[in-house]
């Protein structure tokens, strides 16, 4: 397509594309918007080097187009909500304005980064909701889809996780890394007690013992208690024990009793093994005395939703609003240059979001994007504009934020989202509407048949 635009003389025609998704993942009520920073960095460094151009030339691409790619630099403008914002279906979270070639070339990159990171950050936020104040550790790299696990660790922290066992991600993104021994450590020694003693001697300040290699209640925990008491004599303290199999509610309760009877009430209990938000919620409801949860597969793979169905659609070309019309109204997009606004109720809670043309200043009635007759009156409420310019002429305008800063935004946004939208089962649908002017433009294009 880029070559087609180039050879047909259309390469400088201006275009506007929007990124949005059609459905919340996990049958939930919201999405945590993530992946923006990585996208902006990638676009600022977007290049076709000599090796890439040689390969494309070998595929039969036109030599004049290859010359164009050799000098190509991304010079578009990008408008976006902030990373960590809570967003909802149909909302144009990102708007890209540039020429047809550059706006089209980045489609797959943009979708890959925003869809995956938002999917995992949303899963992490749901797990954090279930875990309450308990510590959460990302254990997901070994089960992730290839190198996606690198991004998943950062997305997990944005969504509310405290640490990751992924040392590379911790290094690359500035996360806090943490880990424990594996069963192979215990099995590598002649007996479990010697394995625990050796580990405690090497890591006296960060000692967590995995107690379920052989027999949790008859061997693992008694040996951990013995080592913990020996550590006290050396003015050290056993940090915790980890349960990685079995009935976690029952075993954690028994472990807590045994540790407390031995005077080791300060020793924490860490649980892992196929955890997700539903299992953790159940453990909490059973009053399982678990201090920390290590979550792997369900987190890094976005278990429950294979992907976020984010799309990238053109809304304006050469100054002309355009839209795709489909028999499936959910697959139609909204025309024009649009901005996203948020309305809050008297308590400051999220009430509704409005999609409007960029130059609109006031709202009255907002209309459902696709369902005729559904509307809401927001007269008297001031809409907060969520989309702002984050890149100009290919240069990043916003400062780098730490994962912790973004995680704080996620937490604040979810606290402002009413509980009925956050619940796991049958969450209430959040109101998203379009302005009167946008509604009129949409209907005009649909009825004209020339979109």
How does this model look, in words?
With 451 residues, this protein is an alpha/beta fold. The protein folds into two domains: 2-121 and 307-448, nicotinate phosphoribosyltransferase (Alpha-Beta Barrel), CATH 3.20.140; 134-300, TIM Barrel (Alpha-Beta Barrel). It is 39% helix and 19% strand. It has 17 helices and 21 strands. The chain has a seven-stranded antiparallel beta sheet with strand order 13-12-1-5-3-19-20. Strands 7-6-11-10-9-8 form a six-stranded parallel beta sheet. Strand 19 (388-392) and strand 20 (395-396) form a beta hairpin. Helix 3 (50-58) packs antiparallel against helix 4 and helix 7 crosses helix 15. The longest helix is centred in the N-terminal third of the chain and has 25 residues, at 107-131.
> Compute the gyration radius: what is it?
26 Å
Domain tally: 2
Strand elements, count: 21
Question: Mind telling me the CATH class of the largest domain?
Answer: Alpha Beta
- Could you say what the CATH topology of the largest domain is called? nicotinate phosphoribosyltransferase
Structural class: alpha/beta
Ranges where pLDDT stays below 50 over 5 or more residues in a row are none
Mean pLDDT: 96
Largest sheet: 7 strands, antiparallel
Going by CATH, the homologous superfamily of the largest domain would be nicotinate phosphoribosyltransferase
Report strand order across the widest sheet: 13-12-1-5-3-19-20
Strand content bin? 15-25%
Can you give the helix content as a percent range? 25-40%
Compute the number of helices: 17
N- and C-termini, Cα separation: 19 Å
Oligomer: single chain
Judging from the principal axes of the Cα atoms, what is the shape? globular
Which architecture of the largest domain would the CATH scheme give at its second level?
Answer: Alpha-Beta Barrel
């Amino acid at each position: 397509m880029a070559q087609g635009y180039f050879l047909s003389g259309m390469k400088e025609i201006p275009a506007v594309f929007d990124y949005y998704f059609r459905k919340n993942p996990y049958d939930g009520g919201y999405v945590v918007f993530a992946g923006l920073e990585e996208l902006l960095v990638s676009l600022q460094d977007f290049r076709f080097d000599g090796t890439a151009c040689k390969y494309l030339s070998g595929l039969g691409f036109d030599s004049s187009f290859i010359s164009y790619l050799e000098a190509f630099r991304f010079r578009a403008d990008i408008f976006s909500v902030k990373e960590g914002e809570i967003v909802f279906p149909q909302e144009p979270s990102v708007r890209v304005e540039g020429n047809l070639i550059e706006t089209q070339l980045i489609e797959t990159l943009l979708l890959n980064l925003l869809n995956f990171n938002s999917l995992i950050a949303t899963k992490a936020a749901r797990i954090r909701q279930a875990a309450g104040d308990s510590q959460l550790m990302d254990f997901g790299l070994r089960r992730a889809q290839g190198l996606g696990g690198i991004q998943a660790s950062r997305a997990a922290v944005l969504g509310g996780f405290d640490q990751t066992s992924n040392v590379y991600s911790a290094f690359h993104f500035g996360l806090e890394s943490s880990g424990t021994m594996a069963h192979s450590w215990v099995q590598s020694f002649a007996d479990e007690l010697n394995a625990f003693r050796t580990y405690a001697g090497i890591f006296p300040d960060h000692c967590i013992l995995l107690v379920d290699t052989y027999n949790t209640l008859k061997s693992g925990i008694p040996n951990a208690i013995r080592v913990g008491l020996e550590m006290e004599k050396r003015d050290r303290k056993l940090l915790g024990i980890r349960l990685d199999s079995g009935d976690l509610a029952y075993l954690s309760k028994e472990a807590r009793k045994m540790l407390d009877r031995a005077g080791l009430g300060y020793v924490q209990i860490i649980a892992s093994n196929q955890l997700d938000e539903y299992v953790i919620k159940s453990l909490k409801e059973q009053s399982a005395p678990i201090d920390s949860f290590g979550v792997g597969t369900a987190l890094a793979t976005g278990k429950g939703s294979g992907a976020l169905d984010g799309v990238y659609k053109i809304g304006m070309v050469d100054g002309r609003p355009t839209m795709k019309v489909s028999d499936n109204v959910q697959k139609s997009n909204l025309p024009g240059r649009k901005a996203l606004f948020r309305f809050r109720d008297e308590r400051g809670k999220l009430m509704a979001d409005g999609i409007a043309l960029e130059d609109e200043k006031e709202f009255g009635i907002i209309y459902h994007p696709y369902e005729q007759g559904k509307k809401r009156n927001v007269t008297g409420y001031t809409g907060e504009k969520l989309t702002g310019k984050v890149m100009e002429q290919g240069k990043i305008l916003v400062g780098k934020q730490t994962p912790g800063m973004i995680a704080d935004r996620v937490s604040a946004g979810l606290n402002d989202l009413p509980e009925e939208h956050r619940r796991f089962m049958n969450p209430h649908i959040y109101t998203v509407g379009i302005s009167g002017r946008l509604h009129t433009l949409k209907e005009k294009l649909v009825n004209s048949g020339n979109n």
